[in-house]
Structures are given as structure tokens and as C-alpha cells.
From TrEMBL:
Source organism superkingdom: Bacteria
Lineage, highest ranks first: Bacteria, Bacillati, Actinomycetota, Actinomycetes, Streptosporangiales
Annotated Pfam families: DUF1579
Protein name, entry field: DUF1579 domain-containing protein
Listed InterPro entries: DUF1579
Organism, as annotated: Streptosporangium canum
Amino acid sequence: MTDNTQASTPENGRLNALVGRWRSQGQTVATPTEPALQITGSDTYEWLEGGFFLIHRVDVRINDDKVEVIEMIGPYDPETRTYPMRSFDNQGDFVTMRASVNDNGVWTFAGETERATLVIAEDHNTMTARWERIDNGPNWLHWMDMTFTKVS
């Protein structure tokens, strides 16, 4: 991976808004049976040489638990107008999702049981995400809120 790798296509170039190292902070939403959990750490996005795949690394603590994730995003799929996402974590979980971006620059990440809306500030130095998930039913429930501040 190199810092000067560029996106391979204009469509993949939309992912450049994510590139960099971000300080991650947030919390899960309390439920009647579980308290809210604090989330702190970092997210890093960088291009794999060639510019077809964006590598996303997550290194956070959720309360006292360490969570590490590596995710590959891309390349852009013109048929679905989305970016495939495949993530693997240190708990042995594997998740597939699809990312899309609207004309206002708002990103949606959607999987079978979880989804998020990511808004990148105009200055590209902060992002906010609202996550939802499905738990034992058909309804989406507010799961967590995250804020990301660009470090580099």
C-alpha cells in the first residue's frame, strides 16, 4: 500500500473522501437489558496499489473489548451502482455489505442485518455515522452513533 495510489476509475474516486486516518468515537444505544457502551479508537482508509480496492482498518475499544476489523471496499459495480464491502474481524466474523453514495455525498452502507448512514462534512475533516441493526425481528433499531475526526 502506498500513500500516493489513486483510484482506478472516476467512480472509485468517490471513495477518496474516506482516505486517511480518523480518530473514532461514539457509543452504542442503551437498551432495556444493556447499557450504552463507549467506543474509541481509529479507522484508516488507504488504497491498495492499483486503485481498485480501498482497505479499511478498524482498531477500537468497545468499553474494555478490543475490536479489530479489516475491510475491502470496491471496486464500483455499475450494474448495482454500489461498492461491494467485505469485512473480517478479530472475533472470526465475516460480513458483506454494499456502499452507495447519493448526489449530496451521503453514504449508505447496507447489509442483511446492519446498515449505516455516513455524512462527511464539507471540509472533509469530520464524519458522522448512524448505525442500525435488526435483532430478532423485521424492524431496524438504532444501534450506535459514531463521529470521526481526520488525523492525517
